[in-house]
What does this fold into?
Amino acid sequence: MIHPCPALRAAAPALALALLAATAVAQPLLDPADPSAPVPPLTHASTLRLPAPVETRGWREAHELVGRIGGWRAYAREAAGAPATAASATPEPRRKAAP
It folds into this structure.
């Protein structure tokens, strides 16, 4: 969009050149082969660090817990935002498939 004010339209190229010149002066070009060139300090942030301690348990205990709370259906209800009910605390009985 072209600005309707002629004074700003005429001053825009001069302002752009001044900004470009200020940027060029602020950051001199450094020779990458110069061993005395200043270098920013190295930092390292591990991606493997956990944000908080995680409670772990044995696989048997985890499977028993899932069975007590209702199996995968309990997790599906939790993901859907449904409130927990007493029925979700008791697992459904397994039915044998018809022969």
The mean pLDDT is 76. Residues 62-89 form one domain.
